[in-house]
Amino acid sequence: MMAREQHPVLDPQVPDGEGSTPRPAPVTARSRVHAALRRGRPWLVPLVVVLLLGQMAVAMVTTAVRQTPTIDEPVYVATAAQYLHEHRLRLNPEHPPLGKLVVLAGVAVADPRYDASFTGDQGATGRHLLYESGNDPWRLMLWARLPVIVLTLLFGLVAFAFAREVTGTAGGLTALTLYAFSPDVIAHGSLATLDVPAAGFVLTSVWLVWRARRRPRLCLPLAGAALGAAVATKMSALPAIPVLMLLAVVSVSRGQADRRRAMLRGLAAAAVVVVAAVAVVWAAYLAVDPRLRFTPAGPVPVVHGPLGRLVDLLPFPRAYRDGMRMQFGLEEHPWQGYLFGRLYTGSLWYYLPAALLVKTPLGLLALGLAGAVAFVAVRRLRSAAPYLMVAPVVLLAAAMCGSRDFGTRYAVFVPMFLAVAAGGVLALRCRWARAVTAVLVLWVAVGSLRTFPYYLPYSNEAFGGPAGTHRVLHDSNVDWGQDLGRLAERLRTRYRGERIWLVYKGSGVPSAYGVHACDPRAVPVGEVHGLLVVSDSAAAKARGNLAELIGGSRPVDDVGYSITIYRR
């Protein structure tokens, strides 16, 4: 028992082989030292956890205060307001309601004026709520973002607990540090969007199904509930269902000599996970409208063939299934992408891996991949490898099949799982493992602090940092409409009284922030003189008159690494 406390490894007993008697895990001098430190300073680890999450909270709240609405946020905030005031399933049916119910917690506190008579589409409804109903958009957006920030911090505790249980306290702190300083997690965790909540719920479900190896009756239903929360937030989490079912079978079947009994236990475990997940999805829709009335604002496309039959078979509310049909309809749209200076129509299968290579800190990439190797190579970690690797690989493969190359937010679960896997490096029997880990973790932390508060356009040092991201990526990777407020301040302080021509990519209303400008694309090129202000995503896609305008202008300033100011 003493060895179990002093050496927090994957299993308190290490098997010699299949069917053999387990032997106690070795107690090393290092584990004795760590146990002594824990007994002498029991407050040290909680203090470090609080400090790490505290700095993350400061980074996210500061970012949330300074950023104007990104492209998707007004839609989610307006949908949350409609849930609150009308209890209707009308706006944004292509995404399930749970993530917007999280946002609703903040919207309810802000208590905005809501016009139930407005009948525009979801984008127009969002702008109407923020800018045309007498509400303060800064205050409303901050309150809408705060619940997501709190949830992001809680997922940090999950990353810490998961890594600590598998690799020990040092591994847990390594995982939490990498999570807390991850620019992508901070960037999207500070927005009233759905990407981080969905990814965090997936991470939580994997952690709980891992814990089910010892406490299946408690952890399997909770794992299913967390999985259901992910699926009730974004439909892109659906591929995690068979993965979690398989992991549940593995969790309850290990150590069973009777194969028939093991099979029955595995099937029962998978059923518990699925039933709990489905129940949470239904509960999310019932929380909005107990009568499940569904009146979508737009037409629902018809999906034929195997996909259509699969959607019909799903045990979810009709609103969920129609939302899936809308998602399949969006997949048929000829979206434009931008990668490494190339503008293209359609999608590239390697877009997300390439974008992750740009947007993930190099230290996190190195430690996460080395940790994944350690989970396969180190015997006492090997049984945890499927839990840490299968879910993110399957979800990433599914995301790579999509037609919308809009950003790493579609794979924000990758840095979360990489952070947990990084703790495995400390299990390597190498003298340099701890020193190298410390150096790389410090590198990630320093890089993140230097990025503050411009987390959305972050790219790692190999691609020039935030200032160089717009040259290789676009959309939510760099410019998602978040810097309209900063632009207004810059124009007031440096360019007061000058003629402004603006090409802005975002959902914000420039005049609401004091930016009064004309569209240079609406007049002949020769009439455009003064300051030309262009969102970097628009510049990346520039063709025709806009490309001619940019080519004949001189860049003189940039705002938030997402908007460039030219002089003509």
In short:
With 568 residues, the chain is mostly helical. The chain has helices at 2-6, 29-40, 44-66, 73-86, 98-110, 122-131, 137-167, 169-180, 183-189, 195-211, 216-231, 240-253, 259-288, 305-313, 318-331, 351-359, 362-377, 385-400, 413-422, 433-451, 484-494, 536-540, 544-551; strands at residues 13-14, 23-24, 336-339, 342-345, 500-503, 531-535, 554-559, 563-567.
- Protein structure class: mainly alpha
Major beta sheet, strand line-up: 5-6-8-7
Rg for CA atoms: 25 Å
Please give the largest β-sheet.
4 strands, mixed
User: What's the count of strands?
Assistant: 8
User: Spans of 5+ residues with little confidence (pLDDT < 50)?
Assistant: 1-25
Judging from the principal axes of the Cα atoms, what is the shape? Answer: globular
Give the number of helices. 23
**% residues in beta strands:** 5-15%
Instruction: Report, as a whole number of angstroms, the end-to-end distance.
Output: 75 Å
Output mean pLDDT.
Answer: 91
| Helix proportion | 55-70%
